[in-house]
Design goal:
Layout (H helix, E strand, L loop, with lengths): L13 H4 L5 E5 L2 E5 L2 H6 L12 H9 L10 E2 L7 E6 L3 H7 L7 E7 L3 E3 L4 H6 L8 E3 H4 L7 H9 L11 E4 L1 E6 L4 E5 L10 E5 L2 E4 L4 E2 L7 H4 L6 H19 L4 H7 L1 E5 L3 H18 L4 H4 L3 E6 L10 H13 L2 E5 L1 E6 L3 E6 L5 E5 L2 E4 L3 E2 L2 H8 L10 E3 L11 E3 L4 E3 L9 H8 L7 E2 H10 L5 H12 L1 H4 L6 E2 L1 H13 L8 H15 L13 E7 L2 E6 L1 H5 L14 E5 H13 L4 H10 L1
Parallel strand pairs: 3-11, 4-5, 4-12, 5-8, 12-23, 14-15, 14-20, 15-16, 22-24
Antiparallel strand pairs: 1-2, 6-7, 9-10, 10-11, 13-21, 17-18, 18-19, 25-26, 27-28, 28-29
Helix pairs in contact: 4-20, 9-10, 16-17
């Protein structure tokens, strides 16, 4: 194996292969535990990138490490005349910010427990080996170098007499932030890696703080999810999922009973969004095309079940894409359960409820992937709890300049940020109540409330999300048990609905654009509010088919012209052509030329 940054030939990493037990082989009369070569390649990383710990423990500990009250925190604040900016995170928003910030003006430090950038949209592909893990990561320290900055940024640097020789790099510290103290303008951090020094806790003062730590999987407090489901948020998660899947087939190969084989080779994916659909499609392709020749007696019993709480898959996409996705999955071996809510996850099954009929049923599962959106992590939640104006449950509430509400110098970008929206239902409390009160009784019964939420779904998307909850749990909303809700109860309901409102989706596009915008605003190059430019949405749906909703032309038009026939409409592509577009655009989105080259070779 040869690394393009290190010309020294290296042999296959046998010690790594010997650490996990997948297949026991007899070699020269000795029993050796040998890891699958495909998995070894899928989890290998470029030089300068370090992973430690198990998938789940490292993911949770590195994001939500607790604040240690009794520890001594060394002050690592640099002595400088420049304004100090601290960035938390190493994802899309953080990387785009640090690649565009003017370091001749600011002293910038990025703090993150992950020392590499990860191209998250390809995690489903890494799970099944279509793309190798090392192909979609890049060391953060490399991305801080001058030659990694965008061409336009380099031209601006040159105009300011900034050259590769006098360029000041952003500083990087590998540590987890455990507490943000707005009163002292400080962050408290801890080295949570497997190799820590004698003093592994420190504090760092800032003049401006950029929070770009992303989010964590939203389990909606469903019983059993944390204990028995797996997530796909980080690179080690892909290795864990692949491990579990291969173990299921190997265990099934030891069984003689067909029913036992069938139970062991059933996999459930919860979530009808892009990640859930792409993982289900990739997994089904992998089972039929790659595992078929290896496990012929087991693959014929294999089943992938995709559970969606909404009636349509990819419900945030154009209706044509949702319909096409359903049609493609029907032709594959993926079984779709739409309009179904997961009530509980057990070790080997998923307990479900049909939302329309109320029928309860159980899906056997040897592997349950949970992919139902994101929520704020513990660090962000603790920050919001200490700021009275932070009223959103979906993240840090920010204004159009990405300044956090209730603060003067804390900004947020990416999945952990929620942009303020004027579409809050609570601002029209009286009008909505009067509109729903058809009989003018001064209170709303269940039928009137459901009718209102049906009517206003187009203007208030958050209403559509909560309609099913009202239908199923009206008694929880009717606090006094009168059978109807009064104005005060209606106000409480709207506040709850609005708290979940997220005006922009938690995608790489949004995070990257917010990071670049925030850097330009700090640089004094923009005094406008953030405006999202939607390029489109894409998803791989299986059998060499994809679905793409391209919005670049529409987004370039003025508001009044968006919606005109042909020029003002999104371009919807499906099928093999869409897959070619999907591959081309995702290849172009890679963070470095090395990533583009390696992903291309993987394909």
């Amino acid at each position: 194996e040869r690394n393009d940054e290190d010309p020294t030939p290296r042999s296959c990493p046998l010690p790594t292969m010997l650490t996990a037990t997948y297949t026991t082989m007899l070699l020269f009369g000795c029993a050796l535990n040998v890891q699958s070569l495909a998995l070894s390649h899928a989890t290998s990383l470029p030089r300068g990138t370090v992973l430690s710990g198990s998938s789940r423990s490292s993911r949770v500990a590195m994001v939500d490490a607790p604040f240690l009250e009794g520890s001594t925190y060394m002050d690592r604040t640099p002595v400088t005349e420049k304004e100090k900016i601290v960035v938390l995170g190493s994802g899309w928003a953080a990387v785009k910010f640090m690649q565009n910030i003017d370091t001749s003006i600011f002293d910038v430090t990025i703090i993150s427990p992950r020392n590499f950038f990860l191209f998250t949209p390809f995690l489903p592909s890494v799970t099944v080996g279509t793309v190798e893990g090392r192909s979609i990561v890049e060391p953060v320290r490399k991305l801080l170098q001058y030659n990694q900055r965008p061409i336009l940024r380099q031209l601006k640097d040159k105009a300011s007499d900034v050259t590769p020789e006098n360029f000041v790099e952003v500083k990087f510290l590998e540590a987890a932030c455990t507490k943000i103290d707005p009163e002292t303008n400080s962050v408290f951090c801890q080295d949570v890696s497997s190799v820590a020094g004698s003093c592994d806790t420190f504090r760092f003062e800032y003049d401006r703080l950029v929070v770009a730590v992303g989010g964590t999987s939203n389990t909606f407090n469903t019983p059993g999810v944390d204990e028995y489901a797996v997530f796909l948020k980080e690179l080690p998660d892909a290795a864990v999922i692949r491990d579990r899947m291969l173990d299921a087939f190997e265990t099934a190969a030891l069984q003689d009973d067909p029913e036992t084989k069938r139970r062991l080779c059933e996999f459930v994916v919860v979530g009808g969004g892009p990640t859930g659909v792409e993982f289900a499609a990739e997994l089904d392709d992998h089972i039929r095309e790659d595992l078929g020749p290896l496990y012929p007696n087991e693959v014929k019993y294999a089943r992938v079940v995709l559970i969606s709480s909404t009636d349509d898959l990819l419900s945030s996409y154009d209706k044509k894409i949702s319909d096409f996705t359903a049609k493609v999955l029907e032709q594959s071996s993926v079984e779709v359960r739409s309009g179904v809510r997961v009530m509980e996850v057990t070790k080997d099954s998923v307990v479900c409820k049909n939302k329309a009929t109320g029928e309860m049923f159980t899906e056997p599962s040897s592997l349950t992937l949970w992919s139902t959106g994101v929520k704020p992590g513990g660090l962000v939640q603790n920050l919001c709890d200490g700021i009275p104006k932070q009223t959103k449950k979906s993240g840090i509430l920010v204004d159009p300049t990405l300044l956090a509400a209730g603060t003067e110098n804390i900004y947020a970008a990416g999945d952990c940020a929620t942009l303020y929206s004027e579409d809050a239902m609570l601002t029209n409390l009286a009008g909505l109540f009067g509109r729903a009160d058809n009989d003018k009784s001064g209170c709303l019964d269940k039928a009137e409330l459901l009718s209102l939420f049906d009517e206003i779904g187009d203007k208030y998307p958050q209403a559509s999300i909560f309609r099913s909850k009202i239908d199923e749990n009206f008694s929880e909303i009717d606090i006094d048990g009168s059978g109807s809700i009064e104005l005060d109860e209606f106000k409480t309901l709207l506040a709850l609905v609005d708290s979940s409102l997220r005006t922009l989706p938690p995608t790489a596009q949004v995070a990257g654009q917010q990071g670049s915008y925030l850097a330009s605003r700090f640089n004094g190059e923009s005094d406008q509010g953030f405006k999202y430019f939607h390029k489109g949405s894409m998803a791989y749906v299986g059998q060499e088919n994809a679905a793409a909703q391209v919005s670049m032309l529409k987004s370039l038009l003025p508001g009044p012209l968006q919606g005109l026939p042909i020029i003002g409409e999104d371009i919807v592509l499906t099928g093999r052509l869409a897959e070619i577009v999907w591959r081309f655009l995702y290849l172009d989105m890679q963070i470095s030329n090395r990533n583009k080259l390696m992903v291309g070779f993987d394909w």
